[in-house]
Amino acid sequence: MYETTFRGAFVRAGLQLSMNFGLPLSISGVSYDLYQDSNGRFKARNVRIDGRRINPFRRYRVALPEGIVRGGQAISPYTDWLLRHAEESPHYIVETIEDKLESEGGRVDDDYLDRRDRRHRREKGLSVPRFYFPGVQR
After folding, report:
1. Taking the CA atoms of the chain, what radius of gyration do you get in angstroms?
2. In terms of DSSP H, where are the helices of 4-108?
3. pLDDT confidence band for 89 (50 / 70 / 90)
4. The pTM is what?
5. Are 35 and 28 in contact (CB under 8 A)?
6. Distance from C-alpha of 51 to C-alpha of 31, rounded to nearest angstrom
7. In terms of pLDDT, which residue wins out, 119 or 74?
8. Separation CA 85–CA 6 (nearest Å)
9. Quick one: pLDDT at residue 57?
10. Residues 91-96: contacts with CB under 8 Å, at least 24 apart
11. Which residues contact 133 (CB under 8 A, 6 or more apart)?
């Protein structure tokens, strides 16, 4: 996981670019109203971070997956410039998800992916691979 800063204007632009190019984007803490202009392009209006309207000139701290940052830096000089402040975070995605689930009273068994995948593969008549990612004991 990486962390970087973006100005509010780039946060809005990133939302709109991902929608118009059909790119998957997972966000948390950001809300916005979506509409289409007369040309069929998606626009984000009333963009808020933690309930407060964004300031286009203020810098916001953003967490991004490693693949997005490292891949983005190699795409073009423009994306490299946008991601110039990216730093490796001390947080790991799996730990962050586990902490979030625990804080909300949820629980995920260590083999949840394995069980679902086995059932799906058997239904399709496919072989069942023998691997799993063990949970971390804390």
Report:
1. 19
2. 8-21, 66-75, 77-82, 93-103
3. confident
4. 0.57
5. no
6. 7
7. 74
8. 9
9. 93
10. 91/1, 91/63, 92/1, 93/1, 93/65, 94/136, 95/136, 96/1
11. 113
